[in-house]
Write a structure and sequence with these properties.
The chain is an alpha/beta fold. The chain has a single domain, classed as Rossmann fold, CATH 3.40.50. Helix 2 runs parallel beside helix 7 and helix 5 packs across helix 6. Bound molecules: iron/sulfur cluster. The site of iron/sulfur cluster has 13 residues, from helix 1 and helix 3.
């Protein structure tokens, strides 16, 4: 089987909403339709760790970025960002490219765009960051039907454009 030799990094809870702070979960498990599109893309999927769970466990309360912004958490984010760069380097040696990153909009840890989260800030300091296509699953996803359908179209186009590059 010919491999695509292209890989996407995914924020952990794209595939596993069980790690999200309980009242904020938006699916039983994975984001089903996003996952279907990802699987159909032919890209390999590398799931990043859920660092809020690693830091505070499963019984944590919803917290702001400012509340997460302590030395121990910044260190954890830095360590995991370096580990992600190591994965990129390992793939690169085998002719495999990490070409994209899916984050979680408005997360204090995994938001790429507006008010970037702590983990994404650490990833952005690694050399591979600049070459990635990037998209956040927005906070309204699966909460507003029309906006959700619009975003799914946007997401499919984003994947298609990655395929073309
Ligand atoms: S946004 Fe990131 S830190 Fe928050 S639950 Fe999802 S994977 Fe974990």
């Amino acid at each position: 089987m010919q491999r695509s030799k292209k890989v996407l990094f995914l924020a952990h809870c794209v595939m596993n909403q069980n790690t999200v702070v309980s009242p904020l979960a938006r699916a039983e498990g994975a984001f089903e339709r996003i996952t279907s599109m990802l699987a159909a893309s032919g890209f390999g999927l590398e799931i990043l760790p859920c660092l809020e769970m690693r830091h505070l466990g499963m019984k944590r309360e919803p917290m702001s970025k400012e509340e997460y912004d302590v030395l121990a958490y910044r260190q954890l984010c830095g360590q995991e960002a370096a580990r992600a760069q190591g994965i990129v380097d390992c793939f690169w040696d085998a002719g495999i490219q990490v070409i994209g990153l899916v984050g979680i909009g408005e997360s204090p840890t995994c938001s790429i765009g507006n008010k970037r989260g702590c983990f994404m800030e650490a990833l952005a300091r690694e050399p591979f960051w600049e070459d990635l296509g990037k998209i956040d699953i927005p906070a309204f996803y699966l909460k507003d039907k029309t906006a959700t359908e619009f975003f799914e179209t946007t997401f499919r186009e984003w994947l298609d454009n990655l395929t073309c590059e």
